[in-house]
Amino acid sequence: MSLRLLLMGTGTFALPAFRALLESSHEVVGLVTQPDRSGRGHHRHPHPLKDLAAAHDVPVLQPDHINQSPWPDRLRGLQPDLSVVAAYGQILSAEVIEVARLGAINLHASLLPKYRGAAPIPYCILNGETETGVSVFQIEPKLDAGHVLGMVRTPIQDNETAGDLEARLADLAADACGEVVERIQAGTATAIAQDASQVSLAPRLTKAAGAIDWDQSPAEIGCHVRAMQPWPRAYTYWHTADHVPQRLLILETAARSVPEQTFPDTSPDTGRLPTRPGTILVAAGQELAVQTGQGPVDILRLQPEGKRKMDVSDFLCGHAISVGDRLGSAD
After folding, report:
1. Which domain holds residue 240?
2. Do residue 152 and residue 218 come from a single domain?
3. What does pTM read for this prediction?
4. DSSP H helix total and E strand total for the chain
5. Which CATH number fits the domain that encloses residue 288?
6. 288 CB neighbour count, 10 Å cutoff
7. Quick one: angle between helices 15-22 and 48-55, nearest 10?
């Protein structure tokens, strides 16, 4: 006997799983998603989940506040057996969780209990994790704390951005979700409690989170740059004499292989103070090297504010950045 599924999601992370459920033997009785948002010029942003629902003649509900009347009653009227939630964007009350006969499950892009919260993918890259995955868990009112019903693991690739990783995890989530739904239908699902001693949090990112700290190591800066893509993107300010600081988006870096002592003021044997982190060490040809708290790092791709993304060689051709200039905060 198939289940009546209520899907709840907003972001593209939910797309593969919701598409698979729509194409399964189960009946999808509705999609709950965030209200449409307007961008610049009052143009509406694309809403791929709504488009997917429309293609399958599934009713779409877009409450501003899912927990407020009349929405719990409207959801109850759909008579779902199970709610499947992925990147919805609102915390569900106990009343909404209990609308479905079998409760609600969530697809979360981390290996719970690590990285509970709104931004698990950026934080796992930011912290230099080598492995992550997707957890399918029972929703309860406490943040991402329910029993885990299924989990899939995957290594994080060396140059993978948060956007790249999200796309891969979305596909893995589709498989994991399908397996858990089948086990729930069959009555064979096993619920495993999370280890509360291993909890870590991944709160929602802010624009300020993109600021690069040049006191960090090249590896930490590389993780930061990858973690901030596609949003809010890593940034810094270029300071040079007699010019207003210019904002630069840093899109790709690499630890520099040239020995550190080849750069000015970096050798402990010179008797001079170490070069200040953020100082430009090399700016010529295809090389833009910056001092960090633990040696130099190469900038490979960047985007000056208001301009296109470019390789460092293109940037150096059109910008008079010099050795000794500084990258850092706006001040």
Report:
1. 207-328
2. no
3. 0.92
4. 8, 14
5. 3.10.25.10
6. 23
7. 10
